[in-house]
Amino acid sequence: MAIEVRIPTILRTYTDGEKSVEGAGATLDELFSDLDTRHAGLRDRVVDGGELRRFVNVYLNDEDVRFLDGIATKVADGDSVTILPAVAGGMA
């Protein structure tokens, strides 16, 4: 088994258009490093300076990892990770 990672439209250029990819690792940090071996550049869009980028939300099984252990959050086979870029804007 592997960990399913759901990729937002804006990052699918790194996954050849795939909506989800599979990876492995004991933590989110390891998972993103593993994904980067097959999808070069993806990690840099999610991680900056060893931490999750400020405007990228990551969910582990529908739970915001910022309220867990951030990039050090433990993951396991069968887990689902969702990457969502924060969206802002609108009319004032």
From TrEMBL:
InterPro entries the record matches: Beta-grasp_dom_sf (IPR012675), Mopterin_synth/thiamin_S_b (IPR016155), Sulfur_Carrier/Prot_Modifier (IPR052045), ThiS/MoaD-like (IPR003749)
Name of the protein in its database record: MoaD/ThiS family protein
